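Example: Polysaccharide export protein.
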Amino acid sequence: MKFRLFRSLQYTFLLTLVLASCHINAQSLSDLQQLQQQAQQAQSGQGANTQTTNSNTSVGSVTAFELNSSRTIQSMNNGEGSTGQYYNSSRGGQVLPGEPTIDTVYPAQAPMENPPYAANLFIGGFESERADGLNDNYLVAQGDKISIWMWGAVNYSDVVTVDNQGNIFIPNIGPIQIANTPAGSVNSTVTSKIKQVYTNDVNVYVNLLTSTPVSVYISGPVLRPGQYAGQASDSILYFLKRAGGIDFQRGSFRQIDIKRDGKIIATADLYEFMRNGELPGISFKDGDVLMVRPLGATVVVQTGARNSFTFEFKDGELSGDTLTKYATPRDFINHVSVAGVRNNQQFSRYLKLNEFNEFSLNAGDTVEFVDDHEQLVYRINIQGSHTGPSQVMVDKGTRLRDVLNYIRINPELSDVDNIYLLRDSVALKQKEIIERSLQQLERSVFTAPISSSGEGAIRAQEAQLVSDFITRAREVEPLGKVVVSENQQVANVLLEPNDTVVVPAVTDLVQVGGEVMLPQAIVFNPDATAADYIAWAGGFTQRADDERILIVRKNGIVEFDSIDGYNFSAREGNAKLKPGDQVIVLPAIDMKSLQAIKDITQIVYQIAVAANVALD
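Written out as structure tokens, the predicted fold is:
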């Protein structure tokens, strides 16, 4: 029985030897069987050797101390974490499987259009940026390490720890009270105590080596309440940022209490820090609690201020004067709009700024600062052929002829008989007219009835073509041209802010464009007609509409001419042209393929008149 046990142990030892010497990781049944065979062969060879040699001095024998025990564990070399592996460093925000996150435990909230004032205090990662060294204002606490050197008549060197009573102990000196001493005064405090015993020939150097971390609890409406470690000299902002910042919807920025042993020792107001840089100057201790109080009364400033935020007010602060100091209205603000609820009814007021300063606000009010000055002076632009300034400031009620008297021109180069205006309000109105026509066209195409599948296919192709046309038409920006001159007479119209007076230059050219073979400028010929100019431009393209040719006069007046067919010998197109006129040939639309031909043709004419372009 003992022999069998010995043979079993020997077999196990040889199997281990083979595994260690071959560095093989058995991962399947076939691998195990192969290793077993190698062990049996080694056992047979060992048995043969023992018959010819002494077992104590056998050649090739291996002791347990010579076994190669190095192992490569893949789960530790591949750089990836595995279940059950221990980490001695921070997870860096990595969430474990099944661990709660803010998304799972915190109610989802819509983004605020006007975030709280001072909310940008919690932007960035300043809580992870700490300067090396100790703050001179740091107060020594229990557990801090202090290095002491004495040389001269007495030699002594040691690192002492501040005990629970706030003392350090030096042989032959005794205890020295050092707790709550500023770091910058540690050397002088300890030296003075030592000099009381060793009065002569002793030099002393004392240095605070480390500061003891403190554990601070953060509670109330913050994103991640809990316990956080830091230095005693860290600020309130540091610990609040560690906790994710104050909850904008629930937490107060005006009342953050610091509690120690159940008593409030200081209160922080972040508004005062933003405006005046004031924070409570305290040194934290273990067990201190930062308590963020619930959100107080709020007023939203929407527009017109440099600080358009949601402002929180303490009791007795709900006044227009306080809000004005925090919001800082922009320049030229003279009125304030207030909307809210009073006595369960809608409430609104429109006040002058000086009246608003004495106005009493309520929680939930919405305030807008308004620049409501009457515009008594505005700018008029001058473009074209002139020699004076390009802008003129005029009083309200000024008319065109009053401005023309101040425009310097060269009579030989400026065509003052064909002056016209460009007006923003007219361009906007033209844009609205074109947009309404495009919307009507969309409705007529996409809501047309279909009687058969063949007609449906045709309508689908037609709808695609119309959609492409509408897309291009919406990109056209009207000029807002206003015709003010005709027959050497200029209408004395009332000017509007930002009007542009265009003085055309004297020219000898006629512009020909649109659906012609060679769009170009042609020298004016007093005997030529529109048909002649089109012929000089290469004639019509295959898509040209020869029945309605657009003539845009130099002063902005629009006329239509027509040429029946491509035979110019009939002397059609007899509109009398003048230098500076534009001849625009509009594209023809195939009436067989589109049923919305009337609407499209109308829109093409509107665009051509409003923007002087031919859109096909």
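Residues 1-6, 11-27, 48-84, 566-571 have pLDDT under 50 and may be disordered.
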